[in-house]
Design goal:
- With 176 residues, this protein is mostly helical.
- 74% of the residues lie in helices and 0% in strands.
- The longest helix has 33 residues.
- The radius of gyration is 17 Å and the shape is globular.
Length: 176
């Protein structure tokens, strides 16, 4: 039997799940920034007074340190490199804990002005929730690996509004 229709439906589901997760991630970042930054703009850090501009990254670093210190070493691994490691050595199996750590650490990182972007956490979240969906459906390892790539592609597509680039990124960087 041809697996292409099944993979197409799974890819579509992965894209929908990832899109919803990335939307929540973006809202978790943008809402606090719009509420608390001057002018209610999510990019108005330079309008803060100098004390707040200095204390905000320090408080974020402290919060991240406290969060990550409480976790086991394997739970601290996040980002694109972690997704690639899980694909290469663990058949694409990602955990709920790694997804939650990535979500909250990514939000804290971005809203406190740390030197990291939204794209790494987005890729991890897309891959993790797609992997979890495949595990929940008890799919074979190859299907889970494909779903992880679909989640990565959907995350890049949702982050940059570039669907073709998301697919190329997933094939060239994540799957290789």
């Amino acid at each position: 039997m041809d697996a292409l229709p099944q993979l197409a439906v799974l890819g579509l589901l992965s894209g929908l799940v990832t899109g919803a997760v990335i939307l929540l991630f973006r809202l978790a970042i943008e809402w606090p920034l719009e509420q608390f930054l001057p002018g209610r703009e999510s990019e108005a850090f330079e309008q803060l007074d100098w004390i707040t501009r200095g204390l905000l990254p320090l408080s974020g670093a402290l919060a991240l340190g406290l969060l990550l210190q409480r976790l086991a070493l394997q739970d601290r691994k996040v980002g694109v490199v972690h997704v690639m490691e899980r694909l290469n050595y663990h058949q694409g199996y990602l955990t709920v804990r790694s997804a939650l750590v990535q979500f909250f650490s990514g939000v804290i990182t971005v809203i406190t002005g740390q030197s990291a972007g939204r794209e790494g956490p987005a890729v991890h979240l897309g891959a993790a929730f797609s992997s979890l969906m495949g595990q929940w459906m008890r799919l074979p390892n190859n299907s889970i690996r494909t779903l992880v790539a679909c989640g990565c592609a959907a995350a890049i597509s949702a982050s940059f509004n570039t669907p073709i680039s998301g697919v190329i990124f997933a094939m060239e960087v994540v799957m290789m």
